[in-house]
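User: My collaborator sent over this chain with a note saying "see what the structure looks like." That's all I know about it. Can you take a look?
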Amino acid sequence: MKDIMTAPFVREMCATAANMYRLGWDERNGGNISYMLDEKEVKEYLDIDNVIRDIPLMGVNEVDFDITPLIGKYFIVTGTGKYFKNVEGDPETNLGIVRIGKDGKHIELLWGFKDGGRPTSEFPAHMMSHMARLKVDPENRVVIHSHPTNTLAMNFVHELDEKKFTHTLWEMCTECIVVFPEGVGILPWMLCGTSEIGKATAKKMEEFRLVVWAMHGIYGAGKTLDETFGLIETVEKAAQIYMLICNRPRVNTIKDEDMVKLVELFGVKYRKDFLDL
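Assistant: Without extra context I'll predict from the sequence alone. Here is the result:
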């Protein structure tokens, strides 16, 4: 059996967490990542019959949270209370590989959380988003939550309207409408760590791969860690440009008709109702 520390999914999680911390997106224990794995790839590194311990899955006792589609699925996930800056140096403490239990009410720990830890408190919200995205894209595997500085700053000075917020981001960088052509979903400020915000995020995930939690952060979903990180990175770059120019008169901008030329060139579907044509 191969050394788990050499597994590409462990190394990718470490690198992603390190980058997010370096960029200032995940201060202290802020932010979380979950990455769905194939059983075949897990079996190369772990004995899947060796369950270290069972962990109750918070928030799944409600009748309206049916996790059945994910039963038996494997995830590598960041831990609750864990600092992203420590993941790369000590992945076995700060990460865990888990399997959703047969009853849908607990998870089975197969590796990690060696100090007795457990998955992020947002894990149920991640599961809701995974299920929502899988309905839209069967290849979806990743959910990332983080607190990008400029995206957060933009929340305080820009109207929190999905069309207007998206349109402004699209105007900031030529690549934006191509990278996230469906736009950005927005939720009002809500109490984090609750089933309410998890369900609201999942609902938005049926339309968007990116959902802003007002005055809190952003959720992103994608097929790979690179894709999901890149989605958030592109929004953050656009938000940074906006924050640099928002208090100055704008002399130039990317016109809506030029955005249409972009999406037609790259052959991507986009939210036509988010443009003013």
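A starting point for your reply to your collaborator: The domain at 1-121 is CATH 3.40.225.10 (L-fuculose-1-phosphate Aldolase).
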